[in-house]
Amino acid sequence: MGAMPESVPVSCPVCRRQHVYAAPSYPCVCGAPVAPPLNRLSRPSVVTHRTWDDDWVAVRCGSCGREGEWPCPELDCPCGTILRVPVSEAPVSGAPRPDSATDGAGGRREQEPVFKPVTIRTAADAIGAAALCLRRLGHHDVRRAQERPPSGVLLTAEGMRALVEPTMRPASLRDVECLWLTALSESARCVCFSLAGYADAARAAADRLGVPLFVLDLTGAPQPVNRQADDLAAGLA
What we know:
Blueprint: E1 7-11, E2 18-22, E3 26-27, E4 33-34, E5 45-46, E6 56-60, E7 67-71, E8 74-76, E9 82-84, E10 101-102, E11 108-109, H1 123-136, E12 143-144, E13 153-157, E14 160-165, H2 173-185, E15 189-194, H3 200-209, E16 213-216, E17 222-224, H4 227-233
Parallel strand pairs: 14-15, 15-16
Antiparallel strand pairs: 1-2, 3-4, 5-9, 6-7, 8-9, 10-11, 12-13, 13-14, 16-17
Protein name: Restriction endonuclease type IV Mrr domain-containing protein
């Protein structure tokens, strides 16, 4: 099994409050909990602006050995300061091969992924929940795309492009059309995730273009919005 999250002391450099912080765990595609290893020896940094590279960290699952990108651990201090908690770069050792696991009889069996939604509290949680959904659908190489969409965050995997709208703004017609055009230009499929749903024009365009639409509820579970999403969601059962 993956290692349980470790609590570390965190001091806010602005108000000097002392906190005890444990990084949230996200389920790997193999079903094991994965949490970034926290660095006790480094001080937290204050988040004043965000960049794509700083918002994500590579973490290897201790159970199956897969490496994925997860939201960086952050703490919201009551004084209003957002602290990014430093992560250790030490690799996880002793992990089995990512494509198989060993059963009790000494033979080998394929791992059976289990989908476990992640409670959504922040935009990073919404993006992480969408990435987990894509991994559960068989896209293990999920990462952030280099290009930025008009709104939201674009995730990419082999043969798949996914738009995540992690705010309380419903995804628009432009969002759906830009996603579809991006996927079409790269001969990829596409899917859209939104916290606040979709404008009527966006839903009509998605039905016309064949774009699956999901709403992420606050438990992190993807809820299909159209027929295309229903068909795709069959892979999550």
